Amino acid sequence: MQFSEIWLRQYVNPAISSEQLGHALTMAGLEVEAMDAVAPAFSHVVVAEVLTAEKHPDADRLQVLTVDVGSGTPLQIVCGASNARVGLKAPCAMVGAALPGFNIKQAKVRGVESFGMMCSAKELGLAEESSGLLELPAEAVTGTDIRDYLQLNDQLFTLKLTPNRSDCLSIVGIARDVAAITGAALQVPAIDQITPVASTGVKIAVREPEACPYYNGRSIRGVNAAVATPAWMQRRLERSGIRSISAIVDITNYVLLESGQPLHAFDAAKLQGDMEVRYAKQGEALALLNQQQATLQQDMLVIADAQGPLALAGIMGGLDSAVSLETRDIFLESAYFAPGVIAGKARRLGLSTDSSYRFERGVDFGSTRQALERATALILEICGGEPGDVVEVKSALPTRKPVTLRYERLLSVLGIPLERSEVSAIFARLGFEAHELDGRYEITPPSYRFDIEIEEDLIEEVARLHGYEHIPAIAPQATLAMLPASGNELNRAWVRDALVAGGYQEIVSYSFVDASWERDLLGNNDAIVLKNPIASNMSVMRSGLWGGLLQTLVYNLNRKQPRAKLFEIGSAYHKADSGYAETMRVSGLAYGAAYPEQWAEDERDVDFYDVKAQVDALTHGRAVYQAATHPALHPGQSAHILLDGKVIGWLGKLHPKWQQHYQLPRSTVVFECDLAPLLTVQLPRYQEVAKFPPVRRDIAVVVDEATPVQALLDTMNDAKNVLISDIALFDIYRGKGVPENKKSLAFLVLMQDTQKTLTDAEADAVMSNLLALLKTKHGAELRN
């Protein structure tokens, strides 16, 4: 919200400087994001009138002007502006003036004396470019300091408002808060009801009273829409960031900024029959004021006549019913629309308007009629015309329920002593209706304070009006004690440290993702859809973290980073029987070379087993991998990650179609698993150290190509022979001597007895038993 300090001080004028005002607003929760001067510093520039204008004797593009600057003696000035002419009033910088970047001195221009300079907006620092002198109205008094005449000793305040403070999206709203903060008198414009001189003649039917509980409208006939907008109004609009368009449009924008109530003016000659407020029908379209053709949806509220939609309620008017300079009769609308009905609709159409911004946050329904009367008065004053009577349709408006505040609770939260009289005075300054009884305040907030709903809201109001800077910072006092921690539970930091130690870098991405990621990349056709997404490509909740990793990878590749190892720890979301479920996940991605470029290692792409080693480190070597297919992974290089017999995640190489989709020229391997199982570990247990040497025996068997190695390892480990201390695969062979579609697997078997040295017979018995198990369960044959 940007506004002019001079405009604000017309309604409330505390005896403090601009800097002090900015500080007071910020400390009261209305953060001043910027405070900029309207114009740079300059001096000795006055309103001047051109008395004569003659061609320069030695220059075709120059004129010799005689200028009245209000001093009694006209000045001779050489000027090259194309719009310099007799009778023109424009700024004149006299000799000795200091303009932005240069000073004015008496000079000769092509042999003719010049005692000053006529100025454009650019030369005064008011615009970056200008085509001629800054033309002033004929009623401007010559000799008046231009800074006073154009109110250039002004500051532009920009407030960074939180969404709950919609009441401060207007000058009057800000003035109310300044008056409450500083104690200065509030003097808002008096608004009287306009006496109608004719019948409006337009009937309004509100078909959706819940969406539009309050609608006001009136006709004004015989207006002069081509009249110029007064300079003071144009100045206030421009300093609030709104471009002047035409008198009637400017007046509605002015009342919007002043009161916070959006209004809209229709050209009455373009209306067909009576008007109604309803939801759009299937297939209806509307040409908006910005010339955008909007296809309306059935949850969009419209203002319509017998021919169809005229305006998108609370967002933007229609082009076909817009006022123009030829308009003579208008229908002026002021309404209250429910915030939930307007929210998100403008963004869905790629729009952002001042009206929708306010209606989405809540508009004061208590000033809807007053805004209509204020706009009517300004139109009659500036454009003339005859006002009709007000057509009013009212249904159930929002109720302002009393909120209870406990005095003891207030003191407990703020931690400072406050007299009851001070608390009551704060609520009175805020305009809240307050009743106190036995240490409890019953507070009824006014219609413009939508944000006051619970006790904590009232405590915040007391704190900010008392002044956050007046609440001392007291160091907390507490006893510290070590909390018991389970020895077989790790924390999230351990997982993060383990990945960082493996060369991975952490990212943080949005939980809101593109629906196509969920559908195509993760195979989730039932994603959780957001009701009011912040962007079209962030419309659903993620059920996995790979999308964010891939997006970050592409971002880095586009910036010439050829190698990336990324991970993220975050939540994934799914629908559940009882509603929604949130699961904490850890996900990783490796791309490019397995190692940084160096002399000691040959360059190769990262592969499945590099990332598998990292997952093994996270699971303390307890993970088991089982071949499985996933829509995002390569069919031959993807697997479930199992821990204690339960699937906890996925590991695999990115599917070629996704590698092509993301334009990844090198291998990309990803993994993702639930975080909780990784944080549970087995406590170390003492095991007697054998005093006798181990016995190693090797066994090589031939099995079908499709038989997993893990299956054989599981079979041998499940034998649970007490003499076996370790079994490991050390060789896989395919080729000469091994039949086609077969493979040879060689395992080492370590055996050890803690009580004695094993004999060959005992070791042979163990090996025979293992071979028999492998043959029975997997059809394994001893390799010759």
From TrEMBL:
Signal peptide: none annotated. Its EC number is 6.1.1.20. It holds the Pfam family tRNA_bind. Its cofactor is Mg(2+). InterPro entries: aa-tRNA-synth_II/BPL/LPL (IPR045864), B3/B4_tRNA-bd (IPR005146), DNA-bd_dom_put_sf (IPR009061), Fdx_antiC-bd (IPR005121), Fdx_antiC-bd_sf (IPR036690), NA-bd_OB-fold (IPR012340), Phe-tRNA-ligase_IIc_bsu (IPR045060), Phe-tRNA-ligase_IIc_bsu_bact (IPR004532). It catalyses: tRNA(Phe) + L-phenylalanine + ATP = L-phenylalanyl-tRNA(Phe) + AMP + diphosphate + H(+). Residues 690-783 form the FDX-ACB domain. GO terms for molecular function: ATP binding; magnesium ion binding; phenylalanine-tRNA ligase activity; tRNA binding. Its main location: cytoplasm. Binds 2 magnesium ions per tetramer. It is found in: Cytoplasm. Keywords: Aminoacyl-tRNA synthetase, ATP-binding, Cytoplasm, Ligase, Magnesium, Metal-binding, Nucleotide-binding, Protein biosynthesis, RNA-binding, tRNA-binding. It comes from the Bacteria. Residues 39-147 form the TRNA-binding domain. Mg(2+) binds at D451, D457, E460, E461. Residues 398-473 form the B5 domain. One of its GO terms (cellular component) is phenylalanine-tRNA ligase complex. GO terms for biological process: phenylalanyl-tRNA aminoacylation. Belongs to the phenylalanyl-tRNA synthetase beta subunit family. Type 1 subfamily. NCBIfam families: pheT_bact, YtpR. Tetramer of two alpha and two beta subunits. This is Phenylalanine--tRNA ligase beta subunit. It comes from Methylovorus glucosotrophus (strain SIP3-4).
